[in-house]
Fold:
Amino acid sequence: MKNIFEKKNTDEIIARINQLRPGSKGLWGKMSVSQMLAHCNVTYEMVYEDKHPKPNALKKLILKWIVKPKVVGEKMYKKNNPTAPQFIIKGDKNFEAEKKRLIDFIIKTQQLGADHFHNKESHSFGKMTKEEWNNMFYKHLDHHLRQFGV
Structure:
């Protein structure tokens, strides 16, 4: 898996994002391109903003043992996987605003670097290694950019 903390890989992801247009259509799924960008932003909102309620202890334990291995592992996501409720984006979103937010989040993450994230507590999964953070960030972005053909 590519390392999202390396600038060359961040630049590649941003170049792919910049290929998207407001009318880009997904190859699978129901989201519009602006909803997909907003959906991808949720991952970063959970890192950088206090916007989403944290799961209670029981739910966090379930997420850690059942969901986390799928999210942070090396295996790529399948098409049309179910998503957590806070990642479901309803209504229209501003394409340019969501695109800018996502690019800004990606750049901030790359600039902070892998060591910043090593053993950092995640919103839902407890402490994660820098490799787990990388897999979560990169795999999610790659999945949705492939969804929209870029």
